[in-house]
Request: fold
Amino acid sequence: MKRIVVTGATGQIAYSLLFRIAHGDLFPHSEPIALHLSDLLGTEAMMEGVAMELEDCAFPLLKEIHFGSDLEKQFDQVDIALLVGAKPRGPGMERADLLMDNGRIFVDQGRALGSAANKDVKVVVVGNPCNTNCLIAMSHASTLPRQNFHAMMRLDQNRAQALLARKGSAEVEEVKRLTIWGNHSATQVPDFVNATIKEKKALDVIKDPSWFQGDFIETIQKRGAAIIAARGKSSAASAANAAVESVRSLYTPTPAGEWFSSAVCSDGNPYGIEENLVFGFPCRSKGDGNYEIVPDLEWDFFLKEKIAVTQKELISERVCVEKELL
Ligand code: NAD
Ligand code: LMR
Reply:
């Protein structure tokens, strides 16, 4: 049985995510599940309501539901931790504006993971700004391998994949090899140089380099803000879907020559990115829950400059938190 904790269990992302997990979507094989719902003190009645709805789905794989606000209890022996609980941004804000408020959450959660979770726990941070929140959690869970921490870039990957499929008149599954380098922010770098559509270079299918360097990158970088402007709330169902796929990719052997995007610890990375950052890289897995960074992708001058900018932003986020939160 896999024990899975979801924080922010009464929030809008969790309201999609929990039901996908309980249905069994995290793993490519059937796996009995114990769900641990974690949220702030005072949300117990609402968590109980969510638990009642989960029960009422009669999901065959869902064997146990626990809920509460005590982190040590909710993180006890978990195999997977989806750290969603955090404030979302509102219109006109950047995700980094949440850093000082949300970053604190991940100090306590990192500590609780280190003391209570299974030593092989895989952690995916969704709460924004997710890369630096993940760095904070990882730093406070010093008993756990740093390789077990991820921040979610999958929503950006999926957005880029869908956009390239629409523009390139292809099916979404025909778009491959998409990396989102760097930070889940407006500086992220969706890599059109290495992406393929129907097994050809995307640049040879959509023969419009200025579209890639302009509209394509900007649309993906600003998609989160566009959703907030349109919906009045930040993305939720698509974020939940991306969280499911982030975990599922770790438990599914990555097909030869392909990869997925995840922000992972930069220590020892093959691209010369500064260490001690949580940075979006191309990753592949043998399906055992672990990953390696895919080496040797080429950067043209344009990508190289953009990647330097996103790296600089992550370094400046780290500087903001290093005194109080790291
Ligand atoms: P929401 O406001 O609907 O829910 C947030 C939940 O977090 C609530 O249940 C709240 O009680 C809980 N929470 C707030 N402060 C907390 C604290 N100090 N400790 C523990 N839990 C706390 O928000 P949402 O729409 O579910 O979004 C959650 C987070 O996910 C936001 O930070 C949002 O920006 C982020 N997000 C990230 C991505 C991504 O791609 N990485 C995508 C979408 C949203
Ligand atoms: C997103 O990309 O949709 C989320 O990170 C929410 C946001 O603040 O944009």
In short: The pocket of nicotinamide-adenine-dinucleotide (ligand 1) is lined by residues 7-8, 10-13, 39-40, 43, 84-89, 105, 126-128, 130, 152, 155, 184, 234-236, 239 (CB under 6 Å). The first strand starts at residue 2 and ends at 7. The mean pLDDT is 97.
